[in-house]
Design brief:
By secondary structure, the protein is an alpha/beta fold. The chain folds into 5 domains: 180 residues, Toll/interleukin-1 receptor homology (TIR) domain (Rossmann fold, 3-Layer(aba) Sandwich), CATH 3.40.50.10140; 159 residues, 3-Layer(aba) Sandwich (Rossmann fold); 64 residues; 81 residues, Orthogonal Bundle (Arc Repressor Mutant, subunit A); 129 residues. Helix content is 48%, strand content 12%. It is built from 27 helices and 17 strands. The strands form 4 sheets. A 6-stranded parallel sheet has the order 12-13-14-15-16-17. Strand 14, helix 27 and strand 15 form a beta-alpha-beta unit. Helix 4 crosses helix 7 and helix 21 crosses helix 23. The radius of gyration is 36 Å and the shape is elongated.
Amino acid sequence: MASSSSSPSAPAFSSQSWKYHVFLSFRGEDTRRNFVDHLYSALEQQGIYTYKDEETLPRGKSIGPSLMKAIEESQIAVIIFSENYADSSWCLDELAYIMKCKDTKSQIIIPIFYGVDPSDVRKQKRKYGEAFAKHELENKKKAKSWGQAVTEDLWGWLFNPREQNRKYREAFAKHELENKTKVESWRKALVDASNLSGWEPKHVANGHESRVIKEIVDTISHRLQLVPLSANKNLVGMAARMQRLKLELQIGSGGVRMIGIWGVGGGGKTTLASSIYDEISSNFDGCCFVKNIREKSSKNGLVSLQKKLISGVLKQKEVQELERVEEGRRMIIDRLCHRKVFIVLDDVDKLDQLEALAGSHEWFGEGSRIIITTRDEHVLNANRVDVKHNISLLNNDEAIKLFRKHARRDYTSMEEYEQLIKEVVSYAGGLPLALAVLGSFLCDKNINEWRSALARLKEIPNDNIVETLKISFDGLTKVERELFLDIACFFRGREKDEAMEILEACGFHPVIGVKVLIQKALITISKDGHFEMHDLVQEMGHHIVRGERPNNPEKHSRVWKEEDVAKICDIDATKELDNIEAIIMVFRFQPAKNQEQDLHSVVAYMKNLRYIESFGDPAKSLFNDIPLRELCCLILFSGSQNQLWEGCKLLPSLKLLRICDMYNLIMTPDFNGLPNLERFRV
């Protein structure tokens, strides 16, 4: 409260320029030598840097610039309303300025009602009413004394008496208006502050002051962790994304709103939610950021998350009596349905998690806002959120800026790095996670190491990036995983309808599966109707197929590269190739007879082959004698042969046969050996 004495010089904190963690506003004669002294000591013991006035200002004196500066530079203001707080115009000036900082600097306000009822503060009753009556009377007396002083019968020179009288009247009218306005601003500040969620020590821990202080300190410590001193305003590309999210949240409007942020892993969903949380959480009666729900629900169960949510919002120790999810639901509704809360549920991947933590808008009080981050759009559809916010990846300029930030070097003067930076940014495709990981990895490397690292990335993706993206893949069913891998290996960039026909023939029933992949942000459909996916998502799919044996394509389930087909042809033809389910074969020239025989022999051992796509002229013997009993789909492009195979070819599982650009064909194949053929496309 005093402008001259405070704690020792503060450490340098954040880019937000907070000098103090906490500013204590209190009436010295009521609380300085008891409650405030104990609270200050407890805060200091926890390493919470606190401003506490050590002097008493004479009655009626206004707060000075240094005290106003201390208020501005404090992250949290703790206001201790005591019996005689409103007697002091100094305290009221201090309060009014604190409430102004709440609006202009997002300062967190924690009121404590020490020996007074919040309704007395809010409505200025009892001692608070008496204090305001006294302030109003004093202002009138002050104005009257000023008037008497200037009308004393003193001898002096008189210049332009009419003009002087007019100016004095105007000045006194202005003083009276200013005094009235100041009192009204005090009233408003009291109302606003007393409406915030606060503490009544007499109703906490049976009034035991030491326990009350411990809980208050725990709450302040928790709030300081939730709102980091290192502000997020310098995050690349965040300002525009935060602005869009704020518009969707409709802060200040009525009702309860639930906003879902969804998109690919590593796309910045949690960062965006965290940034908006840091900025606006202090405007609510309670708040909680529940992190890593997918992981924590799997390890510790839903009840532990319900306990964290309740204790976080209510600023209490963890609820111990909860044992079942249904009990947790009832407690959340009972405790939070009348509170204006701000909650972030981070990394939700199953509907039961939302049903346990935020099952309905009606669970929360008027003005509440709930943000849900997820990789799966379906979770948001089922929970009926108000807005689905699809996370947007970084544009090229933002990507370069983020990469440079993590690389932590000035490359502007090194032209040789510029092309490599462009290659990294192109590889990352606007994915913040990839840019951050690669920037940190390359930050201390020289130009030759950069080149080597980029060459290796094209063959072997970064483990951290793959593992983050793979979380979405791991959440798929077995059929959905197989469907995704087929699209990643064979159908990216292909027309959707064409690919769907092939996938249907392979038994995937892809309509529902493709929808799931879209909802999990693993694939998209382009405007012209083609399958698309992020480069790194496709690379993750390739990495899964190659597994621990990237150099042994005969062990892979899918083969799509010409060089891998060539490697397979070089292996011992007596080996079984049961793993291979799908293959693309390209014949760019008329193969020699021994090469024909190699391919024929190799394919003969692919007992589980369900899909073949062949470009060019395969040997006729490739389809004549090989027992392809599991083959469901055969696609042949641009061959020059005049018939597909001789005689009756037994393909008992074949459902789709497609022939494209084979202009020399003079006859259709014998269909007698194709009992399950459903579609023949020419």
